[in-house]
Amino acid sequence: MENIKFPIKSSTNLYDFELATRQYYLNLFGYFRMESAILLSLGSGKSIKFFPIHTKHIKVFKEEGIEVSIFWTKISFWAVNFLMWFRAAFRLIVFIIKPHKKVFKNKYDQPFIYFDKLSKNNLPASSPNNKSYDIITWYLERFKPIEKKIFHNVEGEHKSNYKEYSIEYIDGPIPLPKNIFLYSLSSLFLLLKLFFELLAGRWWKGLMAHELLEEHRFNFCTKHNEKFQRKFLFYNSMTFYRPIWTYLAEVKGSQIISYFYSTSDTLTPPSGEEKNSEYVALMNWPEMWFWDYHQKKLFEKSFNFKIKSKIVGPIPFSTISKSINKTKKIKISIFDSPPFRVGTHFGFSTSNEMGLNEPDIHIKFLKDILDSFNPFEVYFYYKPKRNRSSIFESNSYFSYINELKKLKNFCVLDGDISAFYLIEESNIVISFPFTSTGVVGNFKHKFSIYYDPSKKVSQFDEAKRDIELLSSKKDLKTWAINAVNKINGQSG
Predict the structure, then answer these.
(1) Which of 156, 263, 266, 410 has its CA 20 to 30 A from that of 177?
(2) 193 φ, ψ (degrees, to nearest 5)
(3) How far apart are CA 195 and CA 197, in angstroms?
(4) Residue 434 lies in a domain
(5) What is the DSSP pairing of strand 165-169 with strand 160-162?
C-alpha cells in the first residue's frame, strides 16, 4: 500500500507534494497503527470502522479479504483531515499570541547548526569520567564545524558551552518573523484558504495544513535571504516524513541531514524475505549518515532515488550522568532486550515471529553467560534495553534479574545509562542478537559477541556483520576461556 499514490497534483516544482503527503499520512496512520487495525479486525472477525483509510487503501483491503466499513472509515478519514486543520489553526494562534524574545529572532541571522527533536538526555552532560556520550558532543568532536552556534529544541535548558561552541535552546528550526503583524495576516489568510479548499474536497489541504503553514513561515522569514546556509540534523526513528520547509531550506544552501542512533537491524525472518519495509522507499532525505556499509547497503537498496550518504561509525545519542562501580576485575557488559509480558504487548518484528520474545530464552541467555565465566574473577554489568515497566515486562524474567542483584559481582544498571560509556569501561561485551551494542563493542575493539541461546538466529544473517555469533553454551564457555586468557595476557 505504500506504493499507492494519492490523486494529488504537485503545485510546486520545488518538491513532490504528493510524495510528501503520502509520507505524512503513513507516518501518522501507517505502519504499526494500520497493521494493528488489520490484526484486530482479523482476530475479532469484525470490520475495520473507526480508522482513517483513504479510498484507494480501502480497495486494497477488500482485495486482500480484509473487511472494511466503507461508510465509517470514510467518515473517520474526513474527520481526521478537519481535525488536522483545526490543530494547525490552534497552533498558529498560539504561536501568534506567544511572546517571542527579540534575542531569539536575532540568533537566526547567523550561521548555526540545529539538532531537531532532542531531549534533555541528548545534551552534553558532565559524565563520571568527564566525557559526554551525546549526539552534540560527538558531532563537534567528529566534524569540528566552523559554526560556533549550536541550537536545539529542549526548552528550559540553560545555555552551555563546549570548548569554543555555544549550545542553547532556540524556538524551533524555522526563523522567527521580524514583523509578526504581517506574518499573522498572511498566515491567517493561508489558513482560511486551506479551509475552503478542504471544503471543496481537497482533503490533503486539511491533513497538511500545519506543514504548509510551516513552509509559509520559512518562506516569509527568509524571502529576502538568497542564501540561508545552515545545518539541520534530524534523527531517524521510524520516520520517513521529511518536513516540506526543508526543501526550500536546501535550495537556499542549507544542509539537511538524517542520521541513525542505532543500527536499525532486524533479524532475517524464516521466510528469507527482504527485511526492509516498503516504507523505506518513500524516504527522500538529501543526505543520510549511516553507521557502517551494511546499514548503508540495507537502506539504499530500497530507495528510489540517489542520496548523498556518509558512513560515520556508531553515533552516541544519549548521556546519563550515572557512574558505575569500578573494579580491577575483568568487566563484562551484558546487553539484553527484556521480553514483554504475554497479552500486554505485541511488537511487529521478526524477533516475535521467530519466538525470541520468550522469557525462558532471555533467562537462559543470562544463565549461560554467568555459568561460562563462573571459574574466573569477573564483574558483570547488566544493562537492559529499556527501564522496566511493571505493566508490560515479563514478571518471571525480572524475578530472575532480582535474584541476580543479590550476587556480589553482578550490577544491574539503569536502562538509560550510555551504552558507549559502559562499553568503554568494559573488557568484554555480550549482546542479544542483534542489538546495536554488539557493533559498538566491536568498533571499540572490545571482545564483542552475540549470543543466541535459542539457536534460531542464522549464522548467515547479514546483520551479524563480522561479529561472532555463538549459539551453544559449550561454544560460549570455550570463547570465555580464550577471551579471559587474552585479556590476562595483555594486562600481564
Answers:
(1) 156
(2) -60, -45
(3) 5
(4) yes
(5) antiparallel
SS3 breakdown of the chain: % helix, strand, coil, rounded to 5? 40, 15, 45
User: How many domains does the structure of the chain reveal?
Assistant: 1
Residue-wise pLDDT tens digits, 279-309: 788 889 999 999 999 999 888 887 777 789 9
When mean pLDDT is compared over 205-209, 233-237, 356-360, the highest value belongs to 205-209
User: Is residue 344 included in any domain, yes or no?
Assistant: yes
Quote the CA–CA distance of 457 and 251 in Å, as a whole number.
46
- Region 310-325 average pLDDT: 84
pTM: 0.90
Q: pLDDT per residue over 454-467, tens digit each?
A: 998 988 888 899 89
- Is position 45 within any domain? no
CA 22 to CA 38: how far, in whole Å?
A: 19
Phi-psi region of 130 (alpha: psi -120 to 50; beta: other; left: phi over 0): left
Q: What are phi and psi of 287, to 5 degrees?
A: -145, 130
- Strand ranges (E), 41-127: 113-115
State the Cα–Cα distance between residues 452 and 364, nearest whole angstrom: 9
Residue 437, domain CATH: 3.40.50.2000
Q: How far apart are CA 440 and CA 315, in angstroms?
A: 9
Q: How far apart are CA 288 and CA 307, in angstroms?
A: 7
Q: Are 136 and 124 in contact (CB under 8 A)?
A: yes
Q: Is residue 335 part of a domain?
A: yes
Q: What CA–CA distance (Å, rounded) separates 238 from 236?
A: 6
Cα–Cα distance for residue pair 264/350, rounded to 1 Å: 13
- State the angle between helix axes of 209-222 and 180-199 in degrees (0 to 180), rounded to the nearest 10: 150
Copy the grid coordinates of residue 190.
493561508
Of residues 20 and 33, which shows the higher confidence score?
20
Side-chain-facing half-sphere of 373: CA atoms under 13 Å: 24
The boundaries of the domain holding residue 382 are 330-491
At 186, phi and psi to the nearest 5?
A: -65, -35
Query: C-alpha cell of 363?
Result: 533467562
Cell of 254: 542549507
Separation CA 384–CA 382 (nearest Å): 7
Report pLDDT digits (tens) over 71-105.
Answer: 999 999 999 999 999 999 999 999 999 887 776 77
Classify strands 113-115 and 160-162 as parallel, antiparallel or unpaired: unpaired
d(CA 155, CA 326): 35
Range picked from 10-24, 220-234, 343-357 for highest mean pLDDT: 220-234
Amino acid at 188: L
